[in-house]
Amino acid sequence: MTTKVPTIVYTLTDEAPALATYSLLPIVRTFASAAGIKVTLSDISLAGRILAAFPERLSEAQRVADGLNELGELTQDPHANIIKLPNISASVPQLRACVAELQAQGFDIPDLPEEAKTDEEKSAAERYSKILGSAVNPVLRQGNSDRRAPAAVKAFVRKYPHSMGAWSKASRSHADYMNGGDFFSSEQSVTMDKDQTVRIEFVNKAGQVELKKELPLQTGEVLDGMFMSAKALEAFFEQTLQDCKETGVMWSLHVKATMMKVSHPIVFGHAVKVFYREVFEKYGELFDELGVNPNNGMNSVLEKIKTLPQSTQDEIEQAIHDCYEHRPEMAMVDSVKGITNLHVPSDVIVDASMPAMIRNSGQMWGRDGKQKDTKAVMPESTYARIYQEVINFCKTNGAFDPRTMGTVPNVGLMAMKAEEYGSHDKTFELTEDGTMRVVDANGQVLMQHDVEKGDIWRACQTKDAAIRDWVKLAVTRARHSATPAVFWLDADRAHDNELKKKVEAYLQEHDLTGLDIHIMSYNEAIRFSMERMMRGLDTISVTGNVLRDYLTDLFPIMELGTSAKMLSIVPMLAGGGMYETGAGGSAPKHVQQLMEENHLRWDSLGEFLALAVSLEELGIKEGNARAKILAKCLDKATELLLDNGKSPSRKAGELDNRGSHFYLSLYWAQQLAAQTDDADLAAHFAPLAKALAENEQQIVAELNAVQGQSAGLNGYYHVDPAAVEKVMRPSTTLNQTLAALKG
Amino acid sequence: MTTKVPTIVYTLTDEAPALATYSLLPIVRTFASAAGIKVTLSDISLAGRILAAFPERLSEAQRVADGLNELGELTQDPHANIIKLPNISASVPQLRACVAELQAQGFDIPDLPEEAKTDEEKSAAERYSKILGSAVNPVLRQGNSDRRAPAAVKAFVRKYPHSMGAWSKASRSHADYMNGGDFFSSEQSVTMDKDQTVRIEFVNKAGQVELKKELPLQTGEVLDGMFMSAKALEAFFEQTLQDCKETGVMWSLHVKATMMKVSHPIVFGHAVKVFYREVFEKYGELFDELGVNPNNGMNSVLEKIKTLPQSTQDEIEQAIHDCYEHRPEMAMVDSVKGITNLHVPSDVIVDASMPAMIRNSGQMWGRDGKQKDTKAVMPESTYARIYQEVINFCKTNGAFDPRTMGTVPNVGLMAMKAEEYGSHDKTFELTEDGTMRVVDANGQVLMQHDVEKGDIWRACQTKDAAIRDWVKLAVTRARHSATPAVFWLDADRAHDNELKKKVEAYLQEHDLTGLDIHIMSYNEAIRFSMERMMRGLDTISVTGNVLRDYLTDLFPIMELGTSAKMLSIVPMLAGGGMYETGAGGSAPKHVQQLMEENHLRWDSLGEFLALAVSLEELGIKEGNARAKILAKCLDKATELLLDNGKSPSRKAGELDNRGSHFYLSLYWAQQLAAQTDDADLAAHFAPLAKALAENEQQIVAELNAVQGQSAGLNGYYHVDPAAVEKVMRPSTTLNQTLAALKG
Hints:
The structure is a homodimer.
Chain A: E1 7-12, H1 15-32, E2 38-43, H2 46-53, H3 67-74, E3 81-84, H4 92-104, H5 119-129, H6 136-140, E4 145-148, H7 151-159, E5 174-176, H8 183-186, E6 188-191, E7 196-204, E8 209-217, E9 222-228, H9 230-247, E10 250-253, H10 263-275, H11 277-290, H12 298-304, H13 310-326, E11 332-334, E12 339-340, H14 350-359, E13 363-365, E14 371-377, H15 381-397, E15 410-412, E16 427-429, E17 434-439, E18 445-451, E19 456-462, H16 464-481, E20 485-488, H17 494-507, E21 517-520, H18 522-534, E22 540-543, H19 545-560, E23 567-571, E24 577-581, H20 588-597, H21 605-622, H22 625-643, H23 657-674, H24 679-694, H25 696-705, H26 721-728, H27 732-742
Parallel strand pairs in A: 1-2, 1-3, 3-24, 5-14, 10-14, 15-22, 20-21, 20-22
Antiparallel strand pairs in A: 4-15, 4-23, 6-9, 7-8, 7-17, 9-19, 11-12, 13-14, 16-19, 17-18, 23-24
């Protein structure tokens, strides 16, 4: 029991989910208030985070609270209950676009410098670096991760399966990755036997030592060091291109440039430079003058050369076209608009792009808009192998069948910026040849690598407490789900061997009676999971955080057609809980459709599911019986919504996001009115249930009537709340009916 | 100690190995006699077996001893020591050719009837049925099987690796097999709880019961019943052809028609009828009149239509060509001669053809003589899955490297006609719809299958004693080789589940301390073995007999470039031993080259290796110390032979089989003269060693001088011994030097 008002913090993010929030949040507040629960809103949008970073440059009226910072503090509160919607993991181009929009709206924020020289530029660059990429998750995810497909969703898919592209045994598609010279092959790992501060140093050929970073480490903490050779990487890219040219298979690149925001854009940039080798060889100096950054994709070239005389532009564009002549066909992001796989680093994110390819018969789209067999290039081999395993499996056994396949939930090691999640400030692109080393407090070298100019060196840390909690969470999940659990730990990896020792020890702290717990290499684990899945059996994957990201897109996209319908819970180390709705995908195309046709196809199903768990756990933790009833009735309402086909349509003029919110309200209210656990609560909701049912036709008509014409939001990253509220709440009848209950 | 003269029985077989015997056996006898060992020769050639089957039709002078029958009896003798060379597993066309040759030589043996009508024809048909296919092995293999790559051969290959075709990740090659309607999906299995005779019955739709066979079974014996649906089989073939046509991948069929001599020719015949559907639809009746049997391949059509008017022949040939127009490209056995994959059932035997394809970058040869990606069709899925697993592995990891790869020895369940090895007389092609069932002594139905006309039903038996011995042999091999052993038992197979219970029980009869023994499904087992093999690690495969055949070609062909260099031992249940030399391959092309150029490229390495083990075990069992010394020195001689490059060349005018035998004699004599364990033996061989060394140039010159012109054998299946001896022992100097020792 707490003396504070029980509170759920809902997050305002970006794009489609943020727009949907304008419609859904009033409904949520209406229902939650019946249990005395307050639902607050915290702005963690990209625009909001940028504005919060430069208070000194804004007027009093323009200043905003630092929502992310506040939420970060809240994660340490055992009562924290946060519903986290998908947000933009901003790439550099996205960040620039947002900055430009804010500047146009009159906010005096600085540009993101190409190359920071002045102190002011350096300060700006540093603040922006904290906003780039997956900046939100590391702050909020103060615990490990528990993700699974909700039973209702799984049951629905079994009845109404999504399409799965057939696989041919003769498919040429495959995954390709480095066989040396990458992070995997160079990884070293040590576990600290005491608290100490270690130094990450670079020693150049002349023997001069440069301190890169001091790192305070705790007893039992695992520290890894590894590097990717730029030479080996470029040779690998060239070889994949030659191979595609010879075999006639389409070439594609899949990186994780948003989350791995320091290392993967560099990897991406090497691909750009190798694919368009002649262009960069010929115009390299000019590009340097113009500030072209290949790490931002070919878009950067095309943007920067606009300042050149037309004849030079034509010459460069011709040189680019010449590359297409002798290079293999490249997979397109948008063949109509000519957007290639190398256009910007954030278009093709491996987590989502590989499952999409696998669901699409192993094919991607070519320049002619036709789907073709593809080489999926993922330079870093560590986790890329699993995709080749999946591809081989699908070639051999055909596509998975959503009607009969089992499910693979995930327990992910994520807490305290574990593993790659916390590597960004320990990642260095080297500017000369030499040695990278980690030296302990006694001057002892813990690990070292001979590196060359251009190589990417990085360190990862994993705290003992995070690992221990992860093992506990895996055992708990295995127990609750009565499902076998597999720790994915690869004997070929130094890091995993350190973790394996801990896992074996910490498993002994739990009652394992009747549990079926394995430790397997990645290849074994994915094969084991797929063999079971094909036979309708479930298997919990217990993994590190990059694999968590991969698998919680891969399996849901095959099982459910989307990862947005997954339950995603972060049981915080401090005792609170964060309930994430959907995995990624802020859906720019949805926003575009809303602006053009006033139809929002965003499906808030992830929000419904997360809200139910949020209410249930609040009910349990705070002893709030009504919260538990709200949760139970919400789950039933969601099931009814799915079964009655009241999810948003993709087509303007039909039920959209707003309409689905109406039906959720209707079913939720009806369930609450019908339940017998709390008569007062039933009575409270009975009039609402009745009014909504009676006005069904009217409300739906009002919601659909506005569709078919453009809708103004007065912004993209930073919309006008009043304008959006008008767009997202167009049914006066619904608004009034809801308001009536409140009063 | 035995009172009998210690004896090694050497076998006279067919084709190249039989020709080589004329040169090698005199040498073996010369050396063995020094240890008081007699080496007898037993004729188990195809021609010999045919002649032995019809004594009443031959003159006194023409009659031959029934070598196979005598050897069969010898297998029950604990002193048995048999060196078994590769022999022909005759297909029907081969049998007919042999019969024709014998008839031309004046032997009054009957034709193999197309369809036996008279009693005489039926008697002939029955006797021939015992000669067809793998008729020799089931008689001689009175024990389980222990096969491995000799250390000397493995070491040699690591120094001088054979070529391995590179694999492309974009390869379209794959294995295809039925996903239902085959033996795998219908298998039922029961273990007898007492000695009893069961009845295999067919019940037709009218309820009439036909006794197919009475089967006496022992307590603990495992009985399996299964069937392949002819309809499903033909639909599967059609689908594979359509798939190849769509994807542009070449089509090939891989069966085991020699060993699975009843069921697989029928399967092959269905493929012929489906591929050339229009031909058989249009000319079916005519073909029936002509006695065309599609189970004998398209060769049967081409042979039989020769009696027709030229215009009809042309018409049929045109119809055949029309099929090629709309069917996918088919893999060729000999593209120069136009011999397709469907020409005769014995040309493409899966054991050897799949490893050859895998070693050849996953490709086979097309009509234009070029190698191409291929669909390898193996209808019965039971063991076919492992090839898809290998193909996926090679696509993912590239070809195996003979310089670094580990080895996969095999312990095979083979004794007492176990499993498929003894299924031939329990295999039935059904002539009407109905039910096949097995009924026990009490009238209880043990298993039953609904079947249709054309379906192939079969039973397999596996005796408890054979299984128990197999488990013991596996444990012994694992102990001696200090290598992990994997029982390949698939939980999806009824038979394997029965075996698994026994394996688990019988393993407990042995000291397993320090042993690493696993039970895995086929897919798991082959993947596990390949993962280890790639890393240079060895893994013993413990399998049933068809998998034994597959794996002891697959792994040796990858590891050693050939399966002929494997040690292959059958520790007989009765206590004796059989030492097989090489796995299959009687090498018709070798014979052809000998006849054309008087050069025999056959490599007797398998004989050298088997002889060494034969001598060693005779030494141990009979307490013959000299036999052991002979064995040790022979192994050293073989190593020297390999290291000095004295194996046969493929090119006329260079060292051939006969020359390699000379060098073996030289090195063997030198080793014996140099050894110090037995001074008398050393003294005995010293003059021979000296004489052979002194005459090296002269002997090699004599051996090579005869090459380059044709050599007369006066036969192919039944050669003239005097003529062959003249051809195979052309060096007077060598012959005299050897004879000098004897005297």
